[in-house]
Amino acid sequence: MGDRRRGPLAPDPMHTTHVALLAFCVGAGYAVGGAFPCDPGLPRHGSWRQNIHDMGGLLEYVGGAYAIYRLLPLTGLCSVIRREHAGRRAKLRTHVG
Question: Which helix H or strand E contains 82, and what residues bound it?
Answer without folding.
Answer: helix 77-96
